[in-house]
Amino acid sequence: MTETDSIAYDVVVLGAGPVGENVADRTRAAGLSTAVVESELVGGECSYWACMPSKALLRPVLAQADARRLAGLGLAVQGPLDADAVLARRTYFTNDWNDDGQVGWLDSTGADLYRGRGRLAGPRTVEVTGPDGSTRVLTARHAVAVCTGSRALLPDLPGLAGVRPWTSREATSSPSVPGRLVVVGGGVVAAEMATAWQALGSDVTLLVRGKGLLNRMEPFAGEMVAEALAEAGADVRTGTSVQSVTRENGSVVVVTDGGARIEADEILFATGRAPRTDDIGLDTVGLEPGSWLEVDDSLRVTGSEWMYAVGDVNHRALLTHQGKYQARIAGAAIAARACGVSLPESEPWGAHSATADHGAVPQVVFCDPEAAAVGLSLAEAEQAGHRVRAVDLDIAVAGSSLYRDDYRGRARMVVDLEREILLGVTFVGPGVGELIHAATIAVVGQVPISRLWHAVPAYPTISEVWLRLLESYRDN
């Protein structure tokens, strides 16, 4: 290898998804030279196989559901969705899986993009193998940021590869609607994709190993989503595991642990995620290949002075918005340390510390009804030793009745009784995704209930549920 094969940068970023892009943006803004390595599409999972295409599929579904339940609109929207138009709109939002626009944005930051597979080759060193087989070595003066994300985790079932199962990628990028679809899983991907494909014309069977859907939220969230899926025509089976799956004469044949036989055209496994760290050279720096990477609040890998793990790979919160938040923190921390600033070990509300991941993570599930939550559930708060009270309320305010004629929703806030602040909030109902940021501010800001009384919700909006929750806390 010649000397010109090695190129030095201040920062090398592995992965050009939203997380890697944001790390690069922040380090470049601080004046650090930055290289970004990407083996697939710039923009990553979120742009092409997750957030954007899935929500593009779901938006017409939710809009139609709302319209059908409004006097004056119901008869106008009784027909089926135009599946071809919905799929075309989905493809538009992925730019037909072309990343030219994202590459242009990355170029505008001044970061250098390297196409190819990047692997650590020792401390502060990344070896990049290009599409043509050529190799370059990048060295980092200050930091290597691992932003490689996560991948779908498939179960260990004999012969599964031959079945050609869907993961979240195939579920969001399919060019056509399967006539029959089996969805295995009970989390966000399973619930959202069952909702989308059922509405687009698939005959959906949802197999859930546990007691219900969305087990990381309050129990009523999963119950309401499962009930709505069943009302829409999906066959929802809880307490059910897949015993075997084969493909016979083009059809998928699933046998459950109870002996039931289900035939379908496709099967989607939404059964968890694994870190994309199995082939990035972790062994060259003393770490276990394929492992989640433990980090401190500045996102620096435990025991390292130069390596950062940002986004899904650290397993704190596998959500795009949380990964981008971490990227902003990591970029600021890398820049500060590059300037010789010694950061404190504990900086709860500082610019270099990712504290939101400890108990204020917001999430929205875009089903009908939507489910949105931030902070701790009641069970989590109790397990953490807090003295708490749950305030539960049906969402029945002027704004909700105007939003939809048959509006059904529920809200819960978990109150820390010693400090009289909110530890968590959950909403379920049409349109509640737009309520969750107010709840996030209340939880992150530790706003006392006495002050929340003076945050007056606009009338007539669904946000008026806040007033009813506070009244219920006061009066009971």
TrEMBL record:
Cofactor field: FAD
**What S-S linkages are listed for this chain?**
46-51
What is the name of the protein in this document? Oxidoreductase
Q: Which organism is it from?
A: Streptomyces zinciresistens K42
The residue ranges crossing the membrane are none
Reply yes or no: does the keyword Nucleus apply: no
Gene3D superfamilies from the UniProt entry: 3.30.390.30, FAD/NAD(P)-binding domain
This entry's comment on the bound cofactor is:
Binds 1 FAD per subunit.
Positions of NAD(+) binding: 185-192, 272
Q: Which family does it belong to?
A: Belongs to the class-I pyridine nucleotide-disulfide oxidoreductase family.
Residue ranges of domain Pyridine nucleotide-disulphide oxidoreductase dimerisation in the record: 361-466
Traced from the root, the source organism's taxonomic lineage reads: Bacteria, Bacillati, Actinomycetota, Actinomycetes, Kitasatosporales
Q: Where does FAD bind?
A: 55, 118, 148-150, 312
One GO process term, biological-process aspect: 2-oxoglutarate metabolic process
